[in-house]
Specification:
single chain, 223 residues, alpha/beta, Arc Repressor Mutant, subunit A, 2 domains, five-stranded parallel sheet, 12 strands, elongated
C-alpha cells in the first residue's frame, strides 16, 4: 500500500484529507507538529509527503529540506495559503515537486498525488475502500468478504467517479458527459438504470449509500 506522510496543524482539514486518502486506498501517517515530522518520516519511510507550510515548530519548507537530505527523489507537495511567486520559488528550492494553494479541492489533490506517484514510478492504489467494501477498478469488481460482484465497463466508470468524490456531490450532467459523452435524454434514462444497479451492489454494506440530490445529481456516502 502506498504510504503518505501528511503534516498539517489544522485538525479539521487534516481529518477531512486523511479520511479521503484512506478511503482511496492510501496508508496515511499524520502529525500536526513540524518537529515530529522528521522522526515520523524516518520511521514510516513514506512514498510521498504532503507538507503544510505554516506549522508550529519547523515550517513545511524546513521539513522539506530535511527530507531531501535523507531522500533526493521522494515526491513532496507543499500546501499553503500564500500564493506570491517568492513563496512558490522558496517551496521548490526547499525540495518541493508541487505547490497547492489553500483552499483546494480533494479532487485536485488526488490528481496531483496520482501524477507525482506515476512520475516517480509508484503506482496508484489498485483497490479503494468504501465502508467494508473493496473496489478494484482494474478487475472491475466490488468485494465484501467472500461476496464479489463484477461490474460492466460503464458501472466501473460510474463508481470510479463517485469514489473519487466520495462525500461530495457529483452533478448529473457531469456524469453523462464523462461516461456517455453527451447528456441526451436517452442517455439520461440509461443513467437511471445504472444508478439502480450500483445501489443494488452497494447494499453489500448497508452503511454505504448512493444518495440522490434532487436537481443536482448524486453523492456517495459512508455512514
Amino acid at each position: 500500500m502506498t504510504k503518505i506522510l501528511y503534516v498539517e496543524d489544522e485538525e479539521v482539514l487534516a481529518m477531512l484529507v486523511r479520511d479521503h486518502l484512506v478511503k482511496n486506498g492510501y496508508e496515511v501517517h499524520w502529525t500536526a507538529s513540524g518537529n515530529e515530522a522528521e522522526v515520523l518520516f524516518k520511521k514510516v519511510q513514506p512514498d510521498l509527503c504532503i507538507l503544510d507550510v505554516m506549522l508550529p515548530g519547523k515550517s513545511g519548507f524546513e521539513i522539506g529540506q530535511v527530507i531531501r537530505q535523507h531522500n533526493k527523489t521522494i515526491p513532496i507537495i507543499f500546501l499553503t495559503a500564500k500564493s506570491e511567486s517568492k513563496d512558490v520559488v522558496e517551496g521548490f528550492k526547499s525540495g518541493g515537486n508541487d505547490y497547492l494553494k489553500k483552499p483546494f479541492s480533494l479532487e485536485e489533490l488526488m490528481a496531483r498525488i496520482g501524477n507525482l506517484l506515476a512520475m516517480s514510478g509508484k503506482s496508484k492504489p489498485d483497490q479503494f475502500k468504501i465502508g467494508d467494501l473493496s473496489f478494484d477498478p482494474i478487475r472491475m469488481t466490488i468485494e465484501n468478504g467472500n461476496e464479489t460482484v463484477t461490474l460492466s465497463h460503464r458501472e466501473n466508470e460510474l463508481l470510479k467517479m463517485f469514489i473519487d468524490r466520495v462525500g461530495s456531490p457529483v452533478e448529473r450532467k457531469e456524469i453523462l458527459l464523462h461516461v456517455w459523452g453527451d447528456d441526451h435524454f436517452f442517455n439520461s434514462r440509461n443513467l437511471d438504470v445504472y444508478i439502480t444497479r450500483l445501489r443494488k451492489y452497494l447494499k453489500m454494506d448497508p452503511g454505504v449509500q448512493l444518495l440522490t440530490l434532487k436537481g443536482v445529481g448524486y453523492q456517495l456516502v459512508d455512514n
